[in-house]
Amino acid sequence: MDFVGIMKGKAVSKQKKLVLPEGTEPRTVRAARIIIDERLAASVTLLGEIADIEKTAKKEGINLDNINIVCPHANDRFGAYANEYYELRKHKGMTEEQAKIDMADPLRWGAMMVRMGEADVMVAGAENTTGDVLRAGLAIIGTVPGLKTASSCFVMAGMDSQWGADGALIFSDCAVIPDPTPEQLADISESAAQSCREFLEVEPVAALLSFSTKGSAKHDDVSKVQSALEILKGRNPGFVFDGELQADAALVPSVTDKKAPGSPVRGKVNTLIFPDLGAGNIGYKLVQRLGNAEAFGPFLQGFAKPISDLSRGASVDDIVTTCAVTLSRVK
Ligand code: ACO
After folding, report:
1. What would the pLDDT profile of 116-168 be if each residue is shown by its tens digit?
2. pLDDT tops 80 at residue 1
3. Which domain range does residue 119 map to?
4. Which residue's CA lies nearest to atom 38 of ligand 1?
5. Are residues 291 and 308 in the same domain?
6. Cα 151 to middle of ligand 1, angstroms
7. How far is the centre of ligand 1, averaged over its atoms, from the C-alpha of 198 (Å)?
8. How far is CA 309 from CA 63, 78, 287, 305, 325, in A?
9. What's the CATH code of the domain at 156?
10. Are strands 17-20 and 121-124 parallel, antiparallel or unpaired?
11. Same domain, yes or no, for 231 and 168?
């Protein structure tokens, strides 16, 4: 599966607007040039002090033709953005003064551009931590109607074609919520199912994983997954799922037949829901390193509009890929 090629093709055909808040960061400036040159976006906006962005570009030998550069605190939309932010957060104790301070932060400005429809997508994290990117997104963009939880997924690809969708699966959540509640696990499952549709282009078949299959072990961590399953059933979310299942019971039909006979996910699982961040994060890295799978992500899911976080170790190519994937998700 040429995941990157497919996502880039979608981004080219959609021609959406991208904002990159870390506009003075060298890899980000290089990525912006590639994104415009490859026509992956209709526009790219770099945020930061204008002189600093230009200085970075000059040092990197990058020309900024057809790339927008915006300094939040000097922009003529500053008052309108600060006011929108104040109105949005005043029930949490936000003051007008603090709103102006916060809006000068490129991360929050970028999120506000997406909220206001002046950008379709925000990608950041080459300099900022995951927590900072998430907090800006949560405070300003919020979650998709009907869900309270933002989370993440990886696309794991390049495995034997017997697994998932021709050797590709969604793993979730591997990057955001350390210890999800049952409600959050149900939200993660719904978001991961949507990610499966968008990234793998197949109908989701999800397994809620555990160290227990259908009550084989008793523990609070097992009860949590069982509760999530009941919540999901109550929501009737429109995709096939089952739990709690051990990974082999979820993936290997002969084991499913022994441990969870009659399971609707038998032989068809393409979306794995991990019970917590420890399992998800360790799980994807083991499959990537020991199983030689390709790991794409983490991609954020559950936000009302598409935003993505980067690893601070991201290469220029990683940034371009993440931007293309995020642009491909715009409705
Ligand atoms: N979904 C929706 N809302 C959330 C979520 C979520 N997942 N997490 C927190 N919130 C809300 C809170 O309710 C709060 O709302 P409010 O301001 O309206 O009251 C707001 O977001 C901020 O909450 P905080 O208490 O400041 O944030 P918290 O300390 O809970 O941290 C965060 C949330 C930032 C998402 C945290 O869980 C985190 O840092 N996760 C990332 C873990 C990590 O480091 N992953 C990277 C390594 S793995 C890898 O990259 C592969």
Report:
1. 999 999 999 999 999 999 999 999 999 999 999 999 999 999 999 999 999 99
2. no
3. 3-142+303-328
4. 131
5. no
6. 9
7. 24
8. 25, 24, 22, 13, 12
9. 3.40.50.10750
10. parallel
11. yes
